Amino acid sequence: MKTGTTDLAWRIGGPQGSGIDRITTLFSRTCASLGQQVFCRREYHSNIKGRHSYCDVSVGPSALSSHAEYPQMLVTFEPESLCRHLDSVTDQGYLICSADDHDENLESLGYLDTRILQERLQQLEQAGLPLTAGGLIEMAQIRGVHAFAVPYKSFLSSLSDELGLTRKHVSPVINTLAVAISTSLLGVSRESLEYALEKSFPGQDDVLRMNREAIGIAYAYVQSNFSPIELQLRQYPESREQVLLLNATQSVALGKLAAGLGFQSYYPISPASDESFFLEAHERVPLVNGEESGPVLFQTEDEIAAIAMASGAALTGARSATATSGPGFSLMTEGLGWAGMNEVPLVVTLYQRGGPSTGMPTRTDQGDLLSAIHGGHGEYPRIVMASGDVESCFYDAAQAFDYAERYQLPVIHLLDKALTSTLQTVPPFDIQRLCIDRGMRYEADHEAKNPVQRFALTDSGISPRPLLGQPGGQHWLTGVEHTEEGLVTEDPVMREKMMEKRARKLLQAAQDIPANEKWQLYGDREATLTIITWGSNKGAVLEALAMLEEEGIRARAIQLRLLWPFPAKELEAILSTAAPLIAVECNCSGQMQSLIKSQTGRACEHLILKYSGRPISGESLYSALKQIYGGRADARIVLRNPDE
Description:
Blueprint: E1 8-15, H1 20-33, E2 37-44, E3 52-60, E4 73-75, H2 79-85, E5 94-98, H3 114-127, H4 133-142, E6 146-150, H5 152-163, H6 167-170, H7 174-185, H8 190-200, H9 205-225, E7 244-246, H10 248-258, E8 261-266, H11 273-281, E9 285-286, E10 292-293, E11 296-299, H12 303-315, E12 319-325, H13 326-341, E13 346-352, H14 369-374, E14 383-386, H15 390-407, E15 411-416, H16 417-420, E16 422-426, H17 492-512, E17 519-523, E18 530-534, H18 537-550, E19 556-560, E20 562-564, H19 568-576, E21 581-585, H20 591-600, E22 606-609, H21 618-629, E23 636-638
Parallel strand pairs: 1-4, 4-5, 5-6, 8-11, 8-12, 12-13, 13-15, 14-15, 18-19, 18-21, 21-22, 22-23
Antiparallel strand pairs: 1-3, 2-3, 2-16, 7-16, 9-10, 14-20, 17-19
């Protein structure tokens, strides 16, 4: 259960459009090539260019599950990152910054939030320091932060002269220079960084040449001007096994492909679009006979069309899905109801983000839980499941199709933006774990002249499923109540029978699905201090459990995977012994807590929430749990960010 120890907590910041995400991937690949495990989270604004973006990378010898709130090394090449993050750098930590911005007045930073600017100006005035980037650096040095000022402009001029290119052409490699300075200080060989560079830009010779030259300039400068630092990034060649470095959207896409995805529709929306874009880039796979195979990806005019097309594809027998985020899911609810009425085995991958309305398109949230369970007109069965980490996204995405076809209903696979922005090393996926279940199919009787009873009343609620176009499988599909053949009816007796038939599916699913697919228990099984959570909070909970264990505090955690039908019966025994029961989630109202109380009658004594749009860290959760353990906590605890 224990999460790994961290050798390094590293952060880089800069304006969007300056390649922060790309350069973070380069740094992460470099660390992974050393045998290190990597956990990276990315935070960015919803505009395209200019506003601030930053990434945290935690590195250690064994698997990590959460980001670090307080970096040991902050890497920058512009002054806004200093204003936003310098207070978060650990005492005796390290700062790589631009020597060219030393005299930059903080009031000239156009994108800096007024609140943050006023806080920094007040700090500098109280310390009697100049209101500049240099003043911030001096303030950090007073508390022991080691600053390394780098002449980026001089580096770029040298690179321009060396390659015979314009300054504008070489300016994008400023982030490579920043990363190379940090890896050199951390004791990482130039060869390791260049190896990761080649993996990042395969076949792009001009890009590789320019970045190699930048790396050479940076390493030479560090060797000539800086002394070795105490913080060194260790190598673990004995554990340098094959790993995957990917995020949740990629993991979900690979899981769908492994499960036999046949069709996916989507309308572009953040952060869900990345999954469909990845599938489009990998949809055609060469076969042994020279032909190509793969799913059909279709970008629609809106979300209503997306879910309607996905339902149509599912009715033909294709494993079909659509991917969206909160606003798109709201538009899909009518189509979701049609799929529920017609018992369509459809998967909806729902990437949660900050709401309501447009909300915060690039920030995380878990505000769609109750909408996923109850949203839409009328009552119809659906299964709602949630993934807790990047690795489980692969297996959950595949299993969602099995649930959909086995029980002939929509399955909503819940993720959140925190997972999509988590880049993580994971072991290679075990395809043998996947067991494809296509559910109950109709065996055509070619001699039959009567329509098929597509919605035959069965004890389980599940009827043999004919496919569109299947010979001998004639039936009707409408959006209104129907008979067993699918013909329109308003007969009250048939209405009751059909409502009860559809409802029996959930009873069957609750009975069939094993407990280990519904929830997982971590920590000390006999402890009474009990945390219950869902989604991407899993990583922070595991890290907090490990920290509590190191102090001899007994605790356990329940990670809910199946949210609907809710596993009330299976949780009854453990919830009855929880003292206290602590809910952890990323929304304002405590939707999971409400669900638990409504389904089990058990109320949570404490609710730990975060709804700033940023994910929960293990460090902040540990502090809140310590307060609860010590009897010093309120019933409702809201976690705040240390910066921004």
